[in-house]
Amino acid sequence: MFLLGKNMDELRLVAQTVGLPAFAAKQMAQWIYAHGVADIDEMTNISKQARAKLKEQYSVGRRAHSLVQTSVDGTRKYLFPTESGHFVESVFIPDRDRATLCVSSQVGCKMGCQFCMTGRQGFDGQLSAGDILNQIYSLPEREQLTNIVFMGQGEPFDNLDAVLRATELLTADYGLAWSPRRITVSTVGLRKGMERFLRESQCHLAVSLHNPFPAERAAMMPAEKAWSLTEFLPMLAQEDWTGQRRLSFEYIVFEGLNDSKAHARELVRLLAPLHCRVNLIRFHTIPDSPFRGASEFTMTSLRDYLSRHGITATIRASRGEDIMAACGLLNTAENPSSNLLPREDSITKTL
User: Fold this and answer.
1) Which of the ends of the chain has fewer CB neighbours closer than 10 A, N or C?
2) Is-catalytic flag, 89?
3) Are residues 171 and 293 in the same domain?
4) What was the pLDDT predicted at 288?
5) How many domains in the chain?
6) Quick check: is 71 in a domain?
7) Contact 187, 228 (CB under 8 A)
8) What is the mean pLDDT for each group of 10 consecutive residues in the chain (351 residues)?
9) Which DSSP helix (H) or strand (E) runs through 296?
10) Tell me, what's the pLDDT at 344?
């Protein structure tokens, strides 16, 4: 059994199970989360005899990456093994004084977005909190990190227990003690998960919007049929976004699909009640896709239109496209060791 991913209460139970005093839980937590050790023998303020007892049933649970690819722009994509024997991809993005890690929350994804390689992969299972944290703690550049975004493979709110556990441990005083403002969690709009996230977390929220018209959005994103923007946007409008917590909307701009003046006007109408920003994203072409990215002129025009009408908008820099690490390109279906199960396409409100 693995220690990585356990909170303080669970570590106290571990200590009790192996006959250690209760204060050993705090010692283990500090070694695992604050110091980032990979082996129980590195916990030097726990006696050798106690460590031997602990090792009979547990290990830290760190797993090194199986593969790394480096882009011409310095972005690095890592392939990490999971507890279940599958693989997920994480992307390290250095940018001057910032260093962001894009982490995965599932093996594949159920949401089936037509423009996303992970959506095409299908779904093969949830990541544990330990799997999520391993992408961070086993990252060679961990000490450089300034930000973490849950924007890799999977829908974070479809695995919310593990995501909340991971963010809890990242922000705990016995963990990395990060401010939640350094963490952003994305979603296509799962309302129940969003409600719970807003109650239980102070991390930033990013919503994958991509089209302001529900019928058009549903054609691109099947999740719209179960969790419509007409339901979750009014809910978000009731929240106070004027403090430090940030709300953003991700908007991939497609040629002739969501880049018209009508789309721009509808975006302004929908988002005007919200204190938010819009991140305009270039579409990165995927094989056999009917979608095409909008021109730079169109993206700039859309950004300027939104800005003139009171919506803060930016064009996100594209990173790591040459190694399939850019937005929407993560996919482990072709990894011969991943042993992926058949695709699951069903999307229901019971998720």
Assistant:
1) N
2) yes
3) yes
4) 81
5) 2
6) yes
7) no
8) 96 94 94 96 94 95 97 97 96 96 97 92 95 98 97 98 98 94 98 96 98 97 96 95 96 97 98 97 88 96 98 95 92 59 35 34
9) helix 296-308
10) 34
pLDDT (0 to 100) of residue 203? 98
- What residues make up the domain containing 220? 67-323
Annotation says 195 is catalytic: no
Tell me the pTM: 0.93
Q: What is the CATH number of the domain that holds 36?
A: 1.10.150.530
Residues 161 and 187 in one domain: yes
**Domain assignment present for 338:** no
The one catalytic residue in 42, 89, 109, 276 is 89
Cβ 50 vs Cβ 22: under 8 Å: no
Tokens of 63: 């797993």
Distance (Å, whole) CA 60 – CA 62: 6
What is the residue whose two structure tokens read 């959005």? 217
Q: How far apart are CA 280 and CA 299, in angstroms?
A: 7
Check 42, 200, 327, 334 and give the catalytic one. Answer: 327
Residues 6 or more apart in contact with residue 338 via CB below 8 angstroms: 86, 87, 107, 124, 332
Residue 169: give its domain's CATH number: 3.20.20.70
At 335 the pLDDT is 58
Side chain identity, residue 100: T
pLDDT of residue 72: 97
- For 33-57, letters b (16+ CB in 10 Å) and e give beebbbebeebeebeeebbebbeee
Measured CA to CA, the distance from residue 275 to residue 166 in angstroms comes to 27
